Amino acid sequence: MTASERQGSAHWGVAPSPRYEALAGRFRPLFAQIREGAIERERNRDLPYPAFAALRDAKFGALRVPEAEGGFGASLPDLFALLAELAEADSNLPQALRNHFGFAEDTVGSPKDERRARWIQRLTAGDLFGGAWSETGPAKVGVFETRIHRSGAGWGVTGRKFYTTGSLFADWIDVVGTGPDGEETSAIVAAKGPGLEIVDDWDGFGQRLTASGSTVFDDADVLGDPLPTASRFSYGPAFFQAVHLATLTGIARAAATEVTSAVRDRNRTYSHAAGARPSSDPQVLQVVGRVHGLAYAAGAITLRAAEAVQRAYDARIGAVREEEAHAINVRAEIELAQAQSVLTGLVLDAGTILFDALGASATRSGLALDRHWRNARTIASHNPRIYKDRIVGDFAVNGTEPPFQWKIGQSPALSGGT
Question: To which H or E segment does residue 154 belong?
Answer without folding.
Answer: strand 154-161
